[in-house]
Structures are given as C-alpha cells and as structure tokens.
Amino acid sequence: METRFGEKSRSVAMAGTKSAGMWSLISEIDHTKTTWALQVRVVRIYEVAAHARGGNTLEMVLHDEEGTRIHAVVKRPQVALFRPQVMEDNVYAMKNFMVLDNYQLYKTTSHLYILEFVSRTRVVHLDKEFPNFMYDLHPFEMLQAQRLLNDKLLIDVIGKVVGRCAPQTHVINNRTERLMELTLEDSDGNRIGCTLWNNYITEFNDYVNHAQNQPIFMIVQLYRAKRYKGTVFTF
User: Which Gene3D superfamilies did the record assign (predicted)?
Assistant: First the structure.
C-alpha cells in the first residue's frame, strides 16, 4: 500500500513502437497460453518478504491502454534479473508469463489471474504515448452506499484531510504498531476515515509541518476499505 501527500498525477509523453496487432489487452488474459504480449504501464512495484524461503518477491501492478489492471509477481530466483529492468510509471512491452489464478488474500486488482515472470519473460522499455491510469479512485459516496464492503480488494481514494487524531501505539499480533486516524472529505462533503501506520505517520507529519497551513489533499493507494461503527475506513 502507499500514501502520497500533495502529489499531482503525472502523464509521461512517449513516442513510437510496433503496430498494435501483436499486443493483447489485459482483459483477454487467461490460462490458454504463456506467450501473452502486453504493453503496460507499471503502477506500483514493491518487495514482499518471503520469510519461509528467505529473500523477497518482487510484486507489480500493471495497467494497459484501457486502464485494466493485473498483478504480476517475480519470485526470488528471478528478482535480481528483473528488478533493474522495471520502474514505476514507465511503459514496457512484456512477453511470456506463467498465468496463475489470483491467489492473493488481499488483491491489488479484481482480475481473475496474476502473471508470474519466468526466465524467458522479456521486458523492453517503450518510448511512446500511452494512457496514464496510475490511480483507480473510488468515490466516497459509492463506498458509503455499499452494504457490504469487500475488504479483500485494495482500493485508491483521494480526499482533503479535515481531521486527525494523535498517534497511538498498539500491540497487534505480538508486534508494536503505531497508527493515526485521519478524516478525509471529498468535494461533495462526504467523509471517510483513514488509518496511517508506522512510517506513513512520520511522512504525513513531515508534510504537514512544511505545508504552512495550506489545505492537504491525500491520495491513498492500495488500501483496504471497511465499515466500523457505521463509518467507512481505509487502512
């Protein structure tokens, strides 16, 4: 998950590549082959600790020209090969993946499948015009209207910070965690709660200290949404 403070959305201008006929859309991906060829932008890239085996896996969220997203994973033996090849917000041609059922407990996309990079996966940076859908924003009103929120699907929201509580410390699963509750408001006055954890609290407070009393707008990316005592919270 990620929280970005005061960041404007970016659009990168790029130019020229091969004809579109050889490329598939993410919505077309299924188990039928392993030679899918995609043009995608990297929305997020991060590492996840693989405690049982040692080392980390490399996790990515990708979107195509239609904004459809899919999750991709690079297992530990391939991380050193692919980590230098991909950067967030860049556009790539990618080909040859294992296609797996989406086994994530907390899903970064609603796609039925995820992609696994293997040794024969190919990645080429593209210098071309390509749509930018870095955030898949969910309206507050829509979240509030849902009787049952799917807290297993991670979402993005944007709002103005209109309230915050002092940080607290809790022991969760035998680990000491710091958390801070915020209130976010959209342009129609709808409000939801937002919980910041650990280092994000420091990042937020540092931004507030340099904001010189200006309004603070926050994009919350890949957070869970849940209702608590009638109020929608992202955390």
Answer: Nucleic acid-binding proteins (2.40.50.140)
Which residues are registered as beta bridge partners of 39?
93
Mean pLDDT, contiguous 10-residue spans, the chain (235 residues): 42 38 93 96 92 77 98 94 96 97 96 97 96 95 90 95 92 88 96 93 91 90 86 76
Residue that terminates a domain, selected from 125, 151, 182: 125
Give the number of other Cβ atoms within 10 Å of residue 135's Cβ.
17
* Number of domain units in the chain: 2
Q: Is residue 220 one of the residues assigned to a domain? A: yes
Q: Are residues 27 and 104 in the same domain?
A: yes
What is the rounded CA–CA span in Å between residue 166 and residue 181?
8
Q: Are strands 37-49 and 225-228 parallel, antiparallel or unpaired?
A: unpaired
**What does pTM read for this prediction?**
0.83
Q: β-strands 113-125, 91-101: how paired?
A: antiparallel
Angstrom distance (rounded) from CA 23 to CA 29 = 11
